[in-house]
Amino acid sequence: MRKLSIGIIDLVAKAPTGTMWMRIMGANFVSIMPQVVATWCEEQGHDVTLVTYTGRENLIEKLPANVDLVFISSFTEAALLSYALSNLFRSRGAITVLGGPHARCYPQDAQKYFDYVLGFTDKALVHLVLRDCSQHRPTGLRLSAERHPARLPGVARRWKFIDQSLRKAPVIKIVPLLSSLSCPYSCDFCIDANVPYQPLDVDEMKKDLRFLLSKLKHPRVAWHDPNFGVHFDRCMDAIEEVVPPGGIDFIAESTLSLLSESRVMRLQRNGFKALLPGIESWFDMGKKSSTGQKTGMDKVDKVAYHVNMILRHIPYVQTNHIFGLDGDAGISPFELTKRFLDLAPGAFPAYSMLSAFGQAAPQNLDFQKANRVLPIPFHFLSNIQMNIKPKNYSWPDFYDHLIDVTKYSYSPRLLVRRFLANGETIPRWLNIVRGLSSEQFGRIAYFKAIKRLLEIDRPFRRFFEQETSDIPPYFVEKIRRDLGQFWDWLPKGAVSHDPNAYLLSAEQNCSSCKVPRVGVA
Ligand code: SF4
Q: 182 alpha carbon to ligand 1 midpoint, in Å?
C-alpha cells in the first residue's frame, strides 16, 4: 500500500465562530473516534494530520496541500460544513470519508457528498478504506462494522492528538475517556437504544488513568460513556486502585437511577465534580429517573430532592430535559420544569427538543410513517430545533412555552441563585458564562426569531405546517451567513434532504429494517 497523506477533521463547531463559550470550552468537545482513526492510520505507516475545528482554525492551511484522504467526523448540525469541506478537498484531488453521528443518522444523504460513509467503525474497516482509497462518485460507498470495536487504542497511543487539543483550551482542559460503549436502557429517542451495551477492558482504563497522572499535574477527565456507572463498582474499584483521592477531577453523564446517595458519596470521594443526569420528561421514563409511577408534581418533588442530594456532594449538576414528547400536552411540562428549578436552583438545566435524527432511533420510523418529520436543514438540527410536528401543540404555542421556560431558567434571579448554590469556583463561573452566552442570548433570540416568522411569514409557516417542502429563505440566508467562505463550496441542493430516507431505505432493503452493511474481509 502506498504511503498516504491523511487529514482528519473533528468538527466541533458547525461554522466559523468566535463566541466566548467556544473559545473557552470548544477544544474540550473533541470526540475520541477521530483520535482512534488517526492512530490506526499512523500504525499503517501513513502521515496523519488531525485538526479539531472549533470555528477558528484555517483548515486549508492546517491540512497538507497534497492531502490524499480526508476523514471528517461530524454531528448532524455540522453536516453542511462537512459537505462543503468534502467538496473543497475533492476539488484538490482528495478522497473523502464521513464518520461520526451524521454518517450513522443520514447515510443516504451523506453518500451524495462523500466517497465513503462509515457506520460502526473498527480497525478492519479503516484498513479497508485505506487499501481501497478511491473515488466512489456520484454515490459514496456505505460501510459499517457489525458493532462498536471491542478495544480502542489507549491514551498513551493517542497522546499526541489529545495533547494538541488540550493546548487549544485556554483555561479548562478536559481529556475524554470511555469505560463503556452504548447503554443497557432503550429510550425510544436515543441513538444508543438499539446498540448492545459493551463495557471496555478495565485494565485499559487503569492504564489510561495512570498515564494521565504521569503527564498532567491535575487532570480533568470527561467520561464519554452515554451512561457512566452501569457497572458502578467495577469502574469505581478501578479508579480507587490507581487514582489518589482528589488526583483527577471527573465529569460523567449518568441516569438518576444509578445515583443513590452512597454511590454519589463514593463519586465525591473520588473527585467527581460534574454529573449530567437525564430527566427527560415529567410524565414518562420513571424507571431511568428512579421515580417509578410518579408523574407530574410528584415526580418534580422526588427528582428535585434527588438532585439536591447530589448537589450536596457534587458541585456541578446539569439536568437534561426534553420538550415536545408525544406524552406532553398543554403548559404543564414547562411549568413543572420551572417548579423543579425553584426547588433545585443549583442544577443547570439543559433543554432539548424531541427530534428525529434520520435513522438514529427506532421510533423515527414511526414518525416518518406518520409523515411528521420536517426537512429542517441539518445546520439547525441541534437539540434546540425540533423537526417533528408536535402531537399536542400548535407551533406558535410550542414556541411561546419554550421562550417562557428558557427566559425563566436563565433569568438574572435564577443565575444568581445557581451561582450561590454551587460551592466551587469553576462550576459557578461555568454556569454564568454558559447561562449568559449560549443559553440565554443564543437560544432565546433563536426561539423568538422562529416564533415571529411563524406569525408573520406565510411561506415559513407553510413549511412548518408541511404544506410545502421549499426551504424558507430565512434558513437559507442564515446558513449562507454562518458558513461564510464555506458557503461557496456547499454542493448544489445540499441545503435540502429527504426527511423520510430511513423509511424508504428500510422498505427497499429488508423487511426487518436493518441498516445495510458491507462485510469487512
Ligand atoms: S439512558 Fe440515556 S444513553 Fe441510555 S438509552 Fe436512555 S437516553 Fe440513551
A: 8
Mean pLDDT, 10 residues at a time, over the chain (521 residues)?
95 92 88 98 98 95 96 98 98 98 97 98 97 98 95 96 93 93 85 88 97 96 93 96 94 93 97 92 73 85 96 93 93 96 93 93 93 97 92 97 93 81 63 57 87 96 97 96 97 97 84 38 24
389/324 Cα distance (integer angstroms): 9
Ligand 1 centre and the CA of 191: distance in Å?
8
Q: How far apart are CA 499 and CA 284, in angstroms?
A: 27
Say how many CA atoms lie within 13 Å of 421 toward its Cβ: 25
Q: Is the pTM of this model over 0.85?
A: yes
- Name the H helices within 344-486: 363-369, 395-409, 412-421, 425-434, 444-456, 458-464, 473-483
Q: Where are the beta strands (DSSP E) in 170-233?
A: 175-177, 180-181, 198-199, 220-223
d(CA 472, CA 379): 13
Ligand 1 probe mutation, 148, 187, 281, 321, most atoms within 8 A of CB: 187
Tell me which residues have their CB closer than 6 angstroms to ligand 1.
183, 185-187, 190, 192-193, 226-227, 255, 278, 288
Domains parsed from the chain with CATH numbers: 5-143 (3.40.50), 174-314 (3.30.750.210), 364-515 (no CATH)
Distance from residue 292's CA to the centre of ligand 1 (Å): 17
- In angstroms, the CA 396 to CA 311 distance is 36
Phi-psi region of 330 (alpha: psi -120 to 50; beta: other; left: phi over 0): left
* Residue 480, pLDDT score: 98
Strand, helix or coil for residue 330: coil
Q: Which of 288, 289, 325, 383 for mutating ligand 1's site (highest number of atoms within 8 Å of CB)?
A: 288
Check: CB of residue 44 under 8 Å from CB of residue 1. yes
